[in-house]
Amino acid sequence: MFKKLVFPLLLALLAARAGRACDICGCFMGITPYDNQSGFSLMHRYRVFNGYQHYGQRPQFFPAGARPLFPKPLNHVDDDFRHAHRGDASDYEIFRVVELRGKYFLSQRVELNAFLPYVMNSARANGATLNLAGVGDATVFAGYHLIRQIETAGVQSRLIVGGGLKLPTGDYQRRNTLGRRYPALNQPGTGTTDGFVYANYIGSFRSVGLSVNGSYRRAGRNPVQESLAPSTTTFANLFYRIAVGENWQVYPSAQFFYEKTRGETFEGHLTGEHAMNNALLGPGLDVYYQNFSLNTSFQLPIYTAPTDHPASAGRLVVAVGYSFKQSKYLLR
Which one-letter DSSP state was computed for residue 265? Predict the structure, then answer.
C-alpha cells in the first residue's frame, strides 16, 4: 500500500535562477513518504542553454568548457563580454544553484517554507566568458492543504494551494573593471520583489501516483527599472513506489516540465529578450532511507519555441534531505 507523500513544491524558473528558468519558487522537492513532516534539504540545480536553432545547431547538455557543478574560476570576468548572439556554436548560458531549503508545518494543513540560494551563473558569447557567483534571491512562501485524504486504503489524494514572495537579497549590480554593469541575466540577484501563487495536486492508487503542479508569478521592478514579464510553470510527475526491505523506498518516475514567459521588460515595456516557451521530459529517481532522502531528475527538451538565443538544452536536479518525525504542531 502506498505510504504518505509530501507535495513536490515546484518552481522550475528560470530555473537555475528566478530571472530566467522559471523555477520561480524552486518548488520541486521530490516525492517523499514523509507526510506533514518538517525538515531541511540541500538542492543543486543545473540548467543549460546552448546552440542556435536558426543555424541548425543541436543543443549540448555539457557544451565544451562547461561544468555541471562549480565554474572555474568561480568569479571570472571578461571586460569584453556582451550578449551578442552571432551564431557561434560554442556560446552557452548556464545557471547553477545550490539551495538550502527549510520547511516547517504549523499544523497538519499549514506549512511554511524558506529557500536561500547560492547562485553560479556562466555565459560564453563570441569567445568571451563570464562567471558570476554569489548569494541569490531568497524565497518564502506558505501552503495550505485544502484536500488531505491520505489515511485511506488504495486511493489517496491531496490538493495544496499557496503563495509567497521572492525577495531581492542577491546582488544585481556586478560590474566589470571599466564600470560597465554586466547583463541582468547573469547577475546573482534580480533586485526585484516577485509574488507567486501555486497549486499542487497529488493522486495515487496503491503504488502508482501522479503529481501535477502549476504556478504563476508576477515580478516587480528593480531600481534600474528591469523586470520580467509574468511567467507560468507546469510540472507533472508520474511515479511508482518500490519498497526494499523495511527501511528503504525507491520511486522511479517520468517528469514533465513546461515554462513560459514573454521575457524581460524595461521601464514597464516588454523587450522580449530571453522569452521562454520550453517543454522538457525525462526520468527521475528518489530514494528514501528512514528519515533521509535523495532526489534526482534529468530532463531534456522535447519542444523549444523559435528563438535567436541559445536554445534550452536541459536541466538536472540533485537534492539530499532530512525529515523530522513531527508529531506536535503549533496550531491545531
Answer: E
Q: Dihedral angle at the C-alpha atoms of 224, 73, 101, 157, nearest 10 degrees?
A: 90
* pLDDT mean over 176-181: 84
- The alpha carbon of 255 is separated from its chain's Cα centroid by a whole number of angstroms, namely 13
Residues 6+ apart with CB under 8 A from 302: 279, 280, 281
Q: What is the dihedral of CA 307, 182, 10, 250, to 10 degrees?
A: 100
- How does pLDDT run across 44-94, given as a tens digit for each residue? 999 999 988 888 898 899 998 788 887 766 556 666 677 777 778 888 999
* Residue located via cell numbers 543545473: 46
What is the pTM assigned to this prediction?
Answer: 0.86
Task: List the Cα angle 242/245/246 in 5-degree steps.
Answer: 105
- Contact (CB, 8 A) for 187 and 173: yes
Q: Which domains does the chain have, with CATH numbers?
A: 11-323 (2.40.128.130)
Q: Which three cell numbers stand for residue 275?
A: 522569452
At 322, is the secondary structure helix, strand, or coil?
strand
- Report pLDDT digits (tens) over 137-157: 999 999 999 988 876 667 888
